[in-house]
């Protein structure tokens, strides 16, 4: 599916975001023609991690939560990484940025521990998602329905469990962003 003229935000928490969950969706979106913009706490370079502990690569951070506007994007990707997802969910700017995508009915993809931001943004009421298994109770306490599947698509919201699910996750993220806004995305915002 061609994503020419589509602009997608991807979140990164330096020294916390899982590298494969950052670079694989970014690559898939760019190969489909999208412009992908890394958004974080501050501009500069952000280093990813592998397995939460080993340092990964350095990636340019294009925008900050203070300057980025969800209205300028066609979709959002939230990578995992235990430390990164926890740092992001603890930042009001990141949480507000995520919530705006739901309010604006735009596609969102979250993988592994990334759904912690969905919990914090209070956008899971009545939604069916998957995530890393340890988030099950958090998801259910936030009003979501958790399931253990490779990829789950719920009206513009794409979720997966871990890096092993990246091929299915990336494919569905590209598909949902290609479809554009989903009216039902706003039902939980």
How large is the radius of gyration? 14 Å
Count of helical segments? 6
What coarse outline follows from CA principal-axis ratios? globular
| Amount of beta strand | 25-35%
In quaternary terms, these chains amount to single chain
Q: Quick one: CATH superfamily?
A: Class I glutamine amidotransferase (GATase) domain
Average pLDDT level? 97
What is the first-to-last residue Cα distance?
28 Å
Q: What summary fits the major beta sheet?
A: 7 strands, mixed
Total domain count: 1
CATH architecture heading = 3-Layer(aba) Sandwich
Question: What is the C-level CATH assignment?
Answer: Alpha Beta
Task: Indicate the CATH topology.
Answer: Rossmann fold
**Widest sheet: strand order?**
5-2-1-6-7-11-10
Secondary structure: number of strands = 11
Low-confidence stretches: none
**Structural class determined from secondary elements:** alpha/beta
Please give the share of residues in helix.
25-40%
- Note the run of SSEs as H and E: EHEEEEEHHEHEHEEEH
Task: Please explain how this structure is put together.
This protein is α/β, with parallel strands linked by helices and 189 residues long. The protein has one domain (7-180): Class I glutamine amidotransferase (GATase) domain (Rossmann fold, 3-Layer(aba) Sandwich). It has helices at 19-31, 82-89, 92-103, 115-120, 136-141, 166-179, and strands at residues 7-11, 35-40, 44-50, 54-61, 63-64, 75-78, 108-111, 128-129, 145-146, 151-154, 157-160. Strand 10 and strand 11 form a beta hairpin. The longest helix is centred in the last third of the chain and has 14 residues, at 166-179. It is globular, with a radius of gyration of 14 Å.
């Amino acid at each position: 599916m061609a994503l020419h003229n589509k602009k997608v935000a991807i979140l990164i928490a330096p020294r916390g975001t899982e590298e494969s969950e950052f670079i694989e969706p970014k690559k898939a979106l760019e190969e489909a023609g999208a412009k992908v913009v890394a958004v974080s706490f501050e501009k500069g370079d952000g280093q990813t991690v592998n397995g939460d502990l080993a340092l990964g690569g350095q990636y340019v951070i294009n925008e900050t939560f203070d300057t980025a506007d969800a209205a300028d994007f066609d979709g959002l990707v939230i990578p995992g990484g235990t430390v990164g997802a926890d740092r992001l969910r603890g930042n009001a700017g990141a949480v507000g940025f995520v919530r705006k995508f739901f309010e604006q009915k735009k596609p969102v993809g979250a993988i592994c521990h990334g759904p912690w931001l969905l919990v914090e943004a209070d956008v899971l009421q009545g939604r069916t998602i998957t995530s890393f298994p340890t988030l099950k109770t958090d998801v259910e306490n936030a009003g979501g329905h958790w399931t253990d599947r490779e990829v789950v698509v719920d009206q513009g919201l794409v979720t997966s469990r871990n890096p092993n699910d990246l091929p299915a996750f990336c494919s569905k993220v590209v598909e949902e962003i290609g479809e554009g806004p989903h009216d039902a995305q706003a039902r939980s915002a």
